[in-house]
Design a protein that fits this description.
The structure holds two protein chains of two kinds.
Chain A: H1 14-35, H2 52-59, H3 61-92, H4 101-113, H5 116-136, H6 147-171, H7 175-182, H8 187-216, H9 219-224, H10 232-239, H11 246-271
Chain B: H1 3-41, E1 45-46, E2 52-53, H2 59-62, E3 66-68, E4 75-77, H3 79-111, H4 115-130, H5 133-144, H6 149-156, H7 170-195, H8 199-206, H9 211-222, H10 224-239, H11 243-248, H12 256-265, H13 270-300
Antiparallel strand pairs in B: 1-2, 3-4
Helix pairs in contact in B: 1-13, 3-7, 3-10, 4-7, 5-7, 7-10, 8-9, 10-13, 12-13
The chains are: A mainly alpha, B mainly alpha.
């Protein structure tokens, strides 16, 4: 018999290590957030609470443009990647394994496997070639838009949208769809009236993950963008080379806040069981 | 197989392909296709101001390890490149080892909490995981800088009288990578420990095993797939890290990712940059293949 108070799962030092890890994980983030409210210009000395840096960031047209650009790209990337990922998930689940299915999986998950820097230089080369070709053919106007960035972001967001949607599809009961078919619903009606509403939480979760992933991307955007096309993260990366002011902390805190809100929503959505 | 059944499979395969096509088209143009072009570029000749000249050459690949002496035109071992590879490998291995060392107790702690509490701890691990990598790296910069939190505390406690300069050293990169990749180690470890049957521990103790023996002979072998998954998830992005060495290494402590950038952005040698990218990709693929083989073997045994 085990001695009194002896818990088998307790290993000495493990709980202490875990608590230290959690503190270490959050301390730097809290420091960063705290200093965004610092009245002093210095990153080192605490000069009292103030929202000045938020006001400065708000007035900074570069920050405003970058924020708008980030949101536009992330919205498009989320919608596009979720749409194509939903189709692919419908095409690859709930049917017998078919020839080429593995190839589809490999391609969909490719952005997760290839190091980001490699994808980034690859896209830089390809979009460079496309730009040269377009300009030579009198379509130079096409090279100034956000299309490249949206395409690149949509691509690396696909696996993030695909995974929750596929998980949702695999957990879904086929009975309702079979019942609908028995009641002479056409395949499209079944999809529109039965499958889609059941799938919606998975799609929303997928879209939110895609949105966060796109919003956070630094490396690929840094290599693909043209001059003056900074997103929030690439603007921040550029600023980190120059003189640092708490304005960066304010921008970081806002981005952080947005991520936390989206993720909390994501967890609440996926936690609910069917 | 009956003709009807055969027919059903054919339509399902066709639908599978049709439905997957839009995703595959995007991925082909913005993921797979570009990789093929990088492969081609690695066999071309560098242009004068960056880019390439369309002449076949293997110098991009040779240049990974050898460089041509400007004066004697002789190929010699490129020490600077070796130093970068060594730094990348060493820091990635150190990061993997250290994240395991502190990640294992953390994952164990989470897995042994009461179910309700467990969700909260898991959520606390996941938030940093989804937080922008650049922001987290910058947060570490804030802590490590000369007038940052670490030095303020150390000097306040009288442990040191002058600030310790950690920023822009390999130590800073190591701390930063450990910090940003830690959740990638904890999450798969947690998944493995969560499935672990705690009755085995009781059995171990009943048979007079010490805690250390139980840990080494019972726990570690069973959660091994989680350890391997976590190690791959940390090692792979560490090896290709770009943001963390750039922000915390200050351009002086380059890793392979920054070295690739250097070849492209300063217009130095695109074929070499392309060859380095391919090499990095091959290393990552080998690591993933080893993992997949191991994972499959593990699951077939139950």
């Amino acid at each position: 018999m085990a001695e009194r108070g002896f818990q088998v799962a307790r290993l000495p030092g493990f709980a202490t290590t875990a608590i230290i890890v959690f503190v270490a994980l959050y301390l730097p983030i809290f420091t960063l957030v705290a200093y965004s409210f610092n009245a002093s210009t210095s990153l080192a000395i605490w000069g009292g609470f103030s929202l000045d840096w938020y006001a400065k960031a708000w007035d900074n047209s570069q920050v405003k443009d970058a924020t708008l650009r980030s949101l536009i790209i992330a919205s498009f990337a989320a919608v596009i990647s979720t749409t194509v990922a939903t189709m692919a998930a419908l095409g690859t689940t709930r049917r017998r394994a078919f020839k080429g299915q593995t190839l589809i999986y490999v391609m969909i998950n490719q952005p997760l496997m290839v190091p980001e820097i490699v994808t980034a230089v690859a896209l830089m080369i390809v979009f460079g070639l496309v730009k040269v070709w377009l300009t030579a053919n009198g379509m130079g106007a096409l090279t100034t838009g956000l299309g490249y960035l949206i395409l690149a972001h949509s691509a690396f967001c696909i696996p993030f949208a695909y995974l929750p949607i596929r998980a949702r599809l695999e957990g879904m009961d086929l009975t309702l769809e079979t019942a609908a078919a028995d009641l002479y619903a056409t395949p499209w009606q079944i999809f529109r009236r039965v499958t889609l509403p059941l799938l919606a939480p998975g799609m929303i979760a997928g879209a939110m993950l895609a949105f966060v992933i796109s919003l956070d991307d630094v490396v690929i955007t840094e290599f693909v963008k043209s001059g003056g096309q900074d997103t929030l993260p690439t603007y921040m990366l550029g600023q980190m080379r120059r003189q640092l002011t708490p304005e960066i902390n304010a921008v970081s805190t806002m981005l952080l806040g947005l991520t936390v809100v989206l993720l909390t929503a994501f967890f609440l959505l996926t936690r609910k069981k069917t | 197989m009956s003709p009807a059944e055969d027919n059903a499979i054919r339509t399902s395969a066709r639908n599978g392909w049709i439905l997957s096509t839009p995703a595959l088209v995007i991925l082909f143009f913005a993921a797979s296709g570009p990789l093929l072009i990088v492969l081609i570029y690695s066999f071309l000749t560098p242009g004068q101001h960056g880019n390439v000249v369309w002449d076949f050459s293997t110098n991009g690949w040779v240049g990974i390890l050898w460089s041509k002496d400007i004066f004697s035109e002789e190929w010699m071992l490129a020490d600077a490149h070796l130093a970068i590879f060594w730094r990348s490998l060493w820091l990635s291995l150190m990061t993997t080892a250290f994240t395991f060392l502190v990640g294992f107790p953390t994952a164990w702690f989470i897995a042994t909490r009461p179910p309700k509490e467990r969700a909260l701890w898991l959520f606390l691990i996941t938030i940093p995981f989804w937080t922008n990598l650049l922001i987290r790296t910058y947060a570490i910069n804030e802590v490590l800088r000369k007038e940052g939190l670490m030095n303020t505390v150390l000097m306040g406690l009288g442990i040191t009288d002058s600030p310790i300069e950690v920023l822009y050293t390999q130590t800073a990169i190591f701390i930063g990578m450990t910090y940003v990749y830690l959740p990638l180690m904890v999450l798969p470890l947690f998944a493995a420990i969560d499935r672990f049957d705690m009755k085995l521990l009781e059995a171990g103790y009943d048979l007079y095993a010490s805690r250390m023996q139980v840990l080494r002979r019972v726990i570690l072998p069973i959660v091994k797939p989680g350890i391997i998954a976590g190690s791959i998830l940390v090692f792979v992005p560490s090896l290709g890290a770009y943001v963390t060495p750039r922000v915390l290494g200050g351009g002086k402590q380059m890793m392979i990712g920054n070295f690739i950038e250097l070849q492209f952005l300063q217009g130095k040698n695109w074929p070499l940059g392309a060859a380095l990218s391919m090499l990095l990709l091959v290393i990552v693929m080998v690591a993933l293949l080893v993992y997949v083989r191991y994972a499959n073997k593990g699951s077939s045994h139950g």
